[in-house]
Amino acid sequence: MWKYLLLVAGLASTVWSGVPLLDRRAPTVTTKQETEPETGYRLPNTTVPLKYNIELTTHVHDHGSAEQFDFEGKVIISLRVEEDNVRNITLHYREITVTHVKLSESGSLVLIDDDSSFSTDSTYEFLVIEPTSALKVGVYTLEIQYNGVLRTDNGGFYRSSYTDASGRTRWIATTQFESTDARHAFPCFDEPGIRAPIGLKITHGSTYHAISNMPIKSQVDSTLPNYKITEFEDTLSMQTYLLAFVVSDFDSISDQENKQSVFAAPSAIANGDLQFALEAGVKVIGALEDYLQVNYSFPKLDQIGIPDFAAGAMENWGLVTYREEILLYNATNSPKSQLKRTASIIAHEYGHQFFGNLVSPAWWSYLWLNEGFATLMEYLASDKAYPELRIQEMFNIEAVQTAFQSDALESTRPMNSYVETPAEISQLFDDIAYQKSGSVLRQLQHAVGDRTFRNGLKYYLEAKQFQAAIPADLAAGLQNAVDEVDDALPGDVKVIDIINSWADQEGYPVVQVSRNEAGVVKLHQERYLLKASDEGTKATWYIPYNLATYQAPSFTSTRALDWLTKETVEIRPTPSLNWDNNDWVILNIQQTGYYRVNYDDNLWELLIHELNNGEYSNIHHLNRAQLIDDSLNLARSSHIKYDVAFRLIQYLTQEREYIPWASTNNGLAFLNRMLAGSSKYDLFKKFVWVLVEPAFHHFTVTDKPSESHFEKLTRNVVINWACAVDAEECLTQTSSQLAEVISNKTDDINPNLKSVVYCNGLRNAERNSFLFIWDRMQRSQDPAERTLITNALGCSQDAELLNLFLETSLDASGETNYRGQERSRVFSSVYSGGKVGLETAMRFLDKNAAAIDKMYNGGSFGGRAIGSAVTGMARRIVNKEQADEFEVLITKLAAGNYLNSGEVSTAKELIQENILWTTKNYDVIENWLETNMKSGANKLSIFVVTLVASLLVSFFR
């Protein structure tokens, strides 16, 4: 499941439009290992379900009635008692009222039939059935009657709404059960390793319809007037969190041949906005079945867009739910980047139909067996469905390089992390479960070869289908495939050892590459940390490695040349992989390995020369992106000097490929944020403009229909940077385009340029223009457009307007029409927009904490809107004055119970790291900028530095 709030805009427009593509959550605490279980929250193993039969009645169609949001339920559970002398039956429940229980032996002997032979524990969320005598081994039937209320926090069995063509509010009842919310809809054994078939009947208004995981079995009139009963076919054996059902008056489109349908509010269907989602669903499931050599298991596969949805999407078996905006694509009004976004998220959720649904993790400790594979399949399957979008190439910048940031903190956690409480479980849905785990699996895929990897996954899925798995089961399937191929792995390297080395220890390595006078290349691994640890950084992973060199510049094969299993290994030239001491060497071809690479001084100089002397294209564009990301982050962590990184990225004056620019986008965003308070900030902006100007003039601020997806993304990156560093022609052109919209000279901006033109056009806009665009957002019924404009409004550099924007997010009068998830998005767009926005947001939070906690949490997954905001803001605190003010703020918030101890400590760690960075690097960077970017010398300086470096390298070659 995409557990992060997805906030449109492409990666190219994220740095300056306020809010990242994914409001990803970094791990905040290091959790316990499987060997340190915490008792209390796990169900006893004395009883197991054999079958659920659920009956629900909802009145959500009955607008304005007193019972509209109430529901009544009955669940009949066939279960087996696993041992003699069992004193009770324990299930999960949450926020429901149990009214009656009945327990019978298989022979129909009634043991309980009353409203009192049970107890509840709200702390552990246990419903305990208490027979008068101990139970023996055997099969029993448990019937529970209960009632509840549709929730308002987008979790469990909850309510959502939309506005129809007549302006009326139409309510729907829908579900979101992962990770621990199925227990809100019916008492159950709510753990991922416990599976059983599920039967479902829903009684609902006759003007509405019900859909669920399985096809409809029958529909009959209810004894209740104007109600009907929809009964579904029984599911296959599955875990409770994958059950889903929606009661609504939505419309749908279908591909009957492929048994797929897409449901959404009637207007979206009428506009044709779901056609692409239907097409992509059919293509993606075909690509997955072909790749995995395993068939999809359920008889149909539906998708539905939900207006209020805290997560991005959810992989319910046979009925995938999405935040509405994710599924919408309009060929006229949507940017080309939306194709990629929709296709890849569909691929993520469809990947779960195999990884997570067909085979589930034995416990949440192994969540990465779900989310890591779904992340990998997200790119693999969508790329196979739409190869022209080059989606797999984006894995490096969106997954690998994103995971590097979170996983470089001391507080990061291992992939295998033991948890018990619902709060701890929800914290596992982070960069480690998604991006890191997907990157580690991709590393193994490339290292052993794709065919071997595919066969291993087939063996794993077939062996464990409809069962729970642990990492050793995955290793066994892959080892079977490895054993069929002579050279898939060295004889002394086993798959289980590889997996354990990456899953059981936190962090990741940096591989130091050096070459001696005899031409021997030495590789040495150690843990990479953004700041040096007092305990040292010694650690060992199983690292696959390969090389490209000046004499053997092939970047095609990503198979492992060998494995680094100890701290150090030495490599000597061979006839097929040769080099001498004047040749550049690049480790980790196409950056398919999950590790950073640092070179000795001479090798860095050779790489800088190769990039800057006009032959940069000799190095694969994915490795150019790797060199950019590694060098800027190695400088950030003091592994190398910033001089090395700055001279390397000077080659960007020649670069036109998207992936290197996207990597640059991330690296420069950090520097821009950190240097905003420097006295030499203007020199930094000059430096960036020198890098960006050639590409800016190449791409211009005009969309070209014949361009590729990547060309459009690259244009957005360079426009954003040109405007961010106050390039007059950029600000003038974006402002004038926006002015034409405001003056009604044109209906709107080209959709491929809309995010960057709105953001940068609003940067210095006056009040009337700002309010015009805000009103446009409020009037829009298009959730994607609403997100885009919300992000853009946060780009304003006017504190008064930003504060006014923030005030609208707390309006409870009905004059604004924000959804729950949109209110917190307003806040994050403001604090992400720069120094002015950050300081405005800090003051606003200080003044309005209680209201923010109440209003924002309605659409926030996990109900930690303030905690999430404080962590995001802490990343942007860059000087002592801000730090002192922020410290007072978080102390106050903690005292008010708006922050927990983990959120406070994470915020303080992030701030301390930023302040430490400025202390260590300000003088160094300012001196470099003064030397190289003095007025009138900027371009000449870069030319001279590059020329000198080239001459030095040529002299030694």
TrEMBL record:
User: So where's the catalytic machinery, residue-wise?
Assistant: 349
What membrane topology was assigned to this protein in its record?
A: Lipid-anchor; GPI-anchor; Single-pass type II membrane protein
- Reactions it catalyzes: Release of an N-terminal amino acid, Xaa-|-Yaa- from a peptide, amide or arylamide. Xaa is preferably Ala, but may be most amino acids including Pro (slow action). When a terminal hydrophobic residue is followed by a prolyl residue, the two may be released as an intact Xaa-Pro dipeptide
Which coenzyme or cofactor does it need? Zn(2+)
Q: Which InterPro entries match?
A: Aminopeptidase_N-like_N (IPR045357), Aminopeptidase_N-like_N_sf (IPR042097), ERAP1-like_C_dom (IPR024571), M1_APN-typ (IPR034016), Peptidase_M1 (IPR001930), Peptidase_M1_aminopeptidases (IPR050344), Peptidase_M1_dom (IPR014782), Peptidase_M4/M1_CTD_sf (IPR027268)
Cofactor: bound how, per the entry note? Answer: Binds 1 zinc ion per subunit.
Subcellular location, principal: membrane
- Record protein name field: Aminopeptidase
Organism whose genome encodes this protein:
Culex quinquefasciatus
